[in-house]
Amino acid sequence: MTPNDNPFSVEKAEESSGFLLWQVTNLWQREIKKALEQYGITHSQFVLLASIYWLTLHKQEVTQIVLSNHTKIDPMTTSTVLRTLQQKGLIQRQEHLTDTRAKTVGLTEEGKKTIKKAVVAVETFDKEFFSKLGNQTSDFNGNLITLLKR
Q1: Over the stretch 3-39, which tens digit does the pLDDT of each residue have?
Q2: Cβ contacts of residue 70 below 8 Å, gap of 6+?
Q3: Environment class of residue 115 by beta-carbon count within 10 Å: exposed (0-12), middle (13-18) or buried (19+)?
């Protein structure tokens, strides 16, 4: 192999921010999946259920597009996951009062019970996982927010 065959701009894989983010994300998601198994929900289902609950607690009207924007999950995937959650009896969808194209989304009683327990499990795991950052957690979160504002 000649030097011209190497398209990489880094000498070591550890110098690639994207590769490191991919590795950390996969490790984190693998462990979150384990934490959620006992509740019978996937990570995407958890994120949508938790977001429905969060937005409801904060007195916001919850629609599919609001959820998609809040979670950064594309609208088609959001719709598919919501359909599955409805089939599981964890959410209900109703016609929007003023927008005939939209549906409001809410948790069923079973959905509330499930998400309350799942949030505790995920937050417990997150606390342990991110504890390695110590007092840099706030800076880390700030950097993630910066990346989300692209």
Answers
A1: 688 787 777 888 788 999 999 999 999 999 999 999 9
A2: 51, 55
A3: buried
In eight-state DSSP terms, residue 63 is: B
* Cα–Cα distances in angstroms (integers) from residue 145 to residues 32, 41, 138, in the given order: 21, 26, 11
Contact 12, 20 (CB under 8 A): no
Spans of all domains in the chain: 42-148
Q: Which residue has the higher pLDDT, 106 or 102?
A: 106
- Domain at 42-148, CATH from 1.10.10.10, 1.10.1670.40, 3.20.20.70, 1.10.260.40: 1.10.10.10
Helix axes 17-37, 43-57, angle to 10 degrees: 80
105-144 pLDDT, tens digit each = 999 999 999 999 999 999 999 999 999 999 999 999 999 9
Cα separation, 136 vs 33, whole angstroms: 25
